[in-house]
Amino acid sequence: MKLFLAFFTSLLLCACTNLWLPQEVSSDRWRLKGKMSVRSLQVNFSAFIDWSYNKNYFRLLVSNPLGLPIAALEGNEELIKVTLPSKRTELVSSENLHRHIGYHLPLNHFPFWVRGFPNPDYDFVGNDVSFDQDGWRIRYSQIQDSLPRKIRLQKEDLILTLFIKSWVTSL
C-alpha cells in the first residue's frame, strides 16, 4: 500500500511557469532532481525524484532511498503513462487519478507551485514565501540562486515536502 501511495503521490507532482526564475530564463522547459517526503495519518515515506518538464510533456522518475526505481511517469496534463519496476505499464487520466488513491490532487497546480508561484488561473491568498490555493497551503522555506529548494505542500493531514537538490533551466 505504501508503494502504491508513493507512486501516485509522485504522479501528483506531474502536471504546468515562475516567480523565482529570472525574467530572461524560460520556464517552459526545466529539470529538477531531489527528494520528496509524504506524511499523513495513513502513510510516511520518502523517495528521490528526477523530474523533466516542458510545456506539453513531463517525465518523472521516482526511486526509493536505495536508488531502486519505484515508477516512471510520463505524459501530459490529460494522460499519464505509468511504468512500474515490474515493467507493467498503465495509462491513467489525470481526471481519474483520485479513484486510484482516494482523494483529489491538483495536478494542474504543481508545475506552478514547484517553480515558486501560484497558478495564475486560480485565486490565492499569500505572499512570496507562502500562499493558500485551492485548499492547499504552499510554503517556501529555502531559496537558492532565485529558485525554490525546499517546498512544503499541505492539505488537511497530508504533507508533501520537496527538497530540490538541483535545477536545470536551460534545456
Structural commentary:
This protein has helices at residues 2-12, 97-101, 110-115; strands spanning 29-39, 44-54, 57-63, 69-75, 79-83, 89-93, 125-126, 130-133, 136-144, 147-155, 158-168. With 171 residues, the chain is mainly β. It has an 11-stranded antiparallel sheet. A hairpin with a 5-residue loop joins strand 5 and strand 6. The longest helix has 11 residues, at 2-12. The radius of gyration is 15 Å and the shape is globular. The N and C termini lie far apart (36 Å).
Key attributes of the depicted protein:
171 residues, mainly beta, eleven-stranded antiparallel β-sheet, 3 helices, globular, disordered N terminus
Treating each run of at least 4 consecutive H or I residues as one helix, how many helices?
3
Shape: globular
Low-pLDDT residue spans: 3-8, 10-26
Number of DSSP-assigned strands: 11
What is the typical, i.e. mean, pLDDT? 81
Helix content: 10-25%
Rg from C-alpha positions? 15 Å
Strand content: over 45%
The largest β sheet comes out as: 11 strands, antiparallel
Strand arrangement, largest sheet?
A: 6-5-4-3-2-1-11-10-9-8-7
Query: Multimeric state of these chains?
Result: single chain
The separation of the N and C termini measures: 36 Å
What order do the SSEs take from the amino end to the carboxyl end, as H and E? HEEEEEEHHEEEEE
Structural class: mainly beta
